[in-house]
């Protein structure tokens, strides 16, 4: 079997077109959705990420503000800025790019964001809303993975999903989203004794480890859906995921490529969350 590729670029383009339409309708009613992106320090990768987020807002017709501060910004000054953005009616979503400089407590900063504007879904109130199945913002990367899985047309009810990785912003929320769709969920991690034993039983595998070739063809049940969140560089410097794509695509039923799979969906779901924050504020 050769897997069908789930095209993240195509799905992202469709969803962004929908955001653009809904943003235009809301703007016509006098509420232009707005996102504030806060970057502290000069981390090169973060600079690239925030640039993409601001550009995506512009392309979708959203208002965006990029606030850049030097690495010497104090925690108190950053908390003051968050308070001002919380109170700003032109801003519906607030994103503080991580990582923050070491002298700033990231948890404290995220906790200061109004949950109604927490479009990253990182606030404990957002995590709690996901846990309890109440309204709140979902973390963008796992949310994007759910949209990719939805694209296969497969009903997750009763399926066995194996998530590899247990980070607060990706692995754990991913498991909760799959559970909410009635999958039977296993979370594997660095201390899991026999990863292959678990993945071979999976109808859906989501790999969020950050190490290439974590999932190889011998670990995948024929026909499984394989979602690759990894973003790694191989020995030749080429971008690759956590899944051995060439091998696994011969066994899986569906697979996401890297690049062009999960990557474009993360920023897309940020736009969706920002639009929904504005729609809720305008309701
Ligand atoms: N750093 C890397 N990815 C992300 C993200 O999705 N959101 C924020 N705020 N920081 C990040």
Question: Key terms for this structure?
Answer:
2 domains, 283 residues, six-stranded parallel beta sheet, 11 strands, three-stranded parallel beta sheet, Rossmann fold, binds guanine, alpha/beta, 10 helices, single chain, 16% strand
Written description of the protein model:
The chain is α/β, with parallel strands linked by helices. The chain has 2 domains: 31-116, Rossmann fold, CATH 3.40.50.10860; 139-263, NAD(P)-binding Rossmann-like Domain (Rossmann fold, 3-Layer(aba) Sandwich). It contains 10 helices and 11 strands. It has helices spanning 8-28, 44-59, 75-87, 106-112, 124-132, 140-151, 171-180, 195-199, 245-248, 263-282; strands at 4-5, 34-40, 63-69, 93-96, 160-164, 184-188, 204-207, 225-228, 232-233, 239-240, 254-255. A 6-stranded parallel β-sheet has the order 1-11-8-7-5-6. A 3-stranded parallel β-sheet has the order 3-2-4, sandwiched between helices. A two-stranded antiparallel ribbon has the order 9-10. A hairpin with a 5-residue loop joins β9 and β10 (239-240). α1 (8-28) packs parallel to α10 and α6 crosses α10. The longest helix is centred in the first third of the chain and has 21 residues, at 8-28. The chain is globular and about 55 Å long. The model has no long low-confidence stretch (mean pLDDT 98).
């Amino acid at each position: 079997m050769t897997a069908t590729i789930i095209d993240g670029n195509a799905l992202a383009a469709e969803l962004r077109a929908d955001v653009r339409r809904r943003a235009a309708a809301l703007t016509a009613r006098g509420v232009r959705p707005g996102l504030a992106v806060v970057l502290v320090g000069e981390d090169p990768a973060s600079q690239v990420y925030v640039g993409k987020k601001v550009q995506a807002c512009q392309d979708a017709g959203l208002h965006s503000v990029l606030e850049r501060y030097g690495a010497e910004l104090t925690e108190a000054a950053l908390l003051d800025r968050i308070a001002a953005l919380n109170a700003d009616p032109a801003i519906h979503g607030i994103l503080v790019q991580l990582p923050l400089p070491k002298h700033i407590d990231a948890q404290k900063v995220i906790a200061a964001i109004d949950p109604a504007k927490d479009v990253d879904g990182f606030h404990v109130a957002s995590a709690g809303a996901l846990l309890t199945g109440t309204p709140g913002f979902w973390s963008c990367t796992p949310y994007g993975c759910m949209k990719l899985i939805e694209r296969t047309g497969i009903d997750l009810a009763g399926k066995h999903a194996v998530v590899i990785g247990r980070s607060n912003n990706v692995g754990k929320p991913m498991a909760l989203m799959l559970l909410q769709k009635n999958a039977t969920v296993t979370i594997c991690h660095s201390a899991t004794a026999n990863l292959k034993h678990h993945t071979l039983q999976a109808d859906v595998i989501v790999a969020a480890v950050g190490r290439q070739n974590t999932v190889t063809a011998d670990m995948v049940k024929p026909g499984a859906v394989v979602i690759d969140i990894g973003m790694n560089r191989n020995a030749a410097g080429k971008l690759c995921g956590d899944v051995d794509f060439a091998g696994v695509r011969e066994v899986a039923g569906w697979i996401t490529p890297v690049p062009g799979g999960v990557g474009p969906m993360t920023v897309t779901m940020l736009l969706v969350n920002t639009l929904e924050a504005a729609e809720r504020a305008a309701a």
